[in-house]
Fold NPH3 domain-containing protein.
Amino acid sequence: MAPAKVSGFYKHGNDWFFNAGLPSDLTIIVDGVNFHLHKFPLMSKCGKIASIFEELKSIHDKIFTTKLEEFPGGPDAFLFAAKFCYGIRVEFTARNIIMVYCAADFLEMTDEYGEDNLLLKSENFLHKNVLRNWKDCILALQSCESCMPRAEKLHILKKCLNAVSMMVCTDPSLFGWPMMMYGSLQSPGGSILWNGINTGARIRSAESDWWFEDISYFSVGLFERLIKTMEERGIRCELLAGAIMYYARKYLPGLGRWQSTQGGKARTVASFSLTPATVDQKVLLESIETLLPKKKGKSFCRFLLGLLRVASILGVNQTCQDSLERRIGMQLELASLDGLLIPSYSDSDTLYNTDCVERIVRHFVSLESGLTLFSPPSLDLESSPSSEPSRKVARLMDSYLAEVASDVNLKPGKLRTLAEDLPESSRPLHDGLYRALDIYFKAHPWLSDGEKEELCNIIDYRKLSVDACAHASQNERLPLRVILQVLFFAQMHLRMALAGCLNVLEAESAPTGQGEIAGNATAGQIVQRDGWVTVVRENRVLKVDMEKMRSRVGELEEEFSKIKQEMKRVTKSHSSLSSPRLVARKFGCKLLAKSSDAQTDVAGSTGPTPRPSVEQACSSRNSRHRKSFSLF
């Protein structure tokens, strides 16, 4: 195999040679690679080599061999400097500028050892080309890993980080996309063109997160340095949190499996030239935790819960895990149920990590109790706006208890501890607790009545709704003593609700001023007895129906009285008439005569008129009654 020659230099095995036709009189070893060179070109440009040669001059006569320990940039950087010393044309790029700069400083290639030496050229290229260009600055930072200590000492790293931070703070629309480095040539579809070739990258609008993708190619240490630099320059914590979340989701695959999928950002022109960094996930997570700002939000809380889940898998240090739990506890009211359902990855028998959730709840309670100490003493804790987070957490924990209650390995003591961690005032209703206990009793049928009664002591039966009381009174899984207590309080609540309804009715029937005062006071009492308001509302509807029925009965009574008066008037007019035929004629009726009556009249007219007897009077009255009855 023929040795590869590069610009007068060629490599043979692990050795580099310069094709000058003269034997080598200087051997320099860099990271196990031997460079067989000549003294004069290097000593004329490098102060370091000149000083070493002066030290070894008295010992060696012909060939000098030296080893450069911890050379910045390694063999590649030294080869670049050697080419420059031999007068071979070299090319400065964003990828090699930092290591060349550090190598020139290490070799002391200043103007003292030659005009326009390598150190000056490197410094000029860095300030005039790299620090003014977003893409080149990103590429330079990514390629400085091999010479990070030297770059830090020379403040090169700080200059690049400040340049990136400044460009992030500046609106990219003022400079083009981004920072006037990609030109204005675009394809008809809007993509960026490079030498007439469609790169696939699209020009971005002035979005605040346009830089997330490019800095996500940095190593963990460099990314950490950049975030701290941005924080010092006053970049908003929302942007910093967004960049950290984007970086974490990229290198922690377990973080994205359970979270809602987010569309990846389109690759920029800079990112096409970058290669993803190789990171240690455990180190990454511990570093990210220290970088996270003090921020609250639903998406941020969900991200913290995802970090905690991955942390339990990776086995991070206890300090990192405690800090994550404390951060989540500060905004537990924004958490979701699926985020709290963290599987148990340890040797625990339980399905979910209930110990972790218990610590999170205690952090929340300690924070809320601290806020309560500074609240006005006259403020009602249950109705104050500051109690809303506690009520949200109580509802969340009730749902969490209902989910973990089906775990057969969950101990009764742990369930009770999780339920009692929150203060009593955070639960206006205990329906959620009752539901969780019912699920737990169903999944643990072997529990004795004593154990069930002990668990049921966490429920305040006065805070059960009508539906919960109705269900509990017929629940065969509950102990008999608990059912009796539920029935007792259900009757008591019903009596109080009915009494409140009657008070409202009396208040409405009272005068206006007194009725409003009494009605407001009674209504406030009823509202406090949540769960029984439905009964009062149904009673009010019943009262409206009763009022309608009462008005209808009044109308019917009025019509009946009118009919009765008409009947009396008709009766008076009938008694004043002498002949029934007049009455019949008045009402338009025809009087029907019977044969027996006619015969009686004829017989009475022909015979002598005797003295009327009792029988005749009776028959006369009967006939008159029949005549008058036929009128109707």
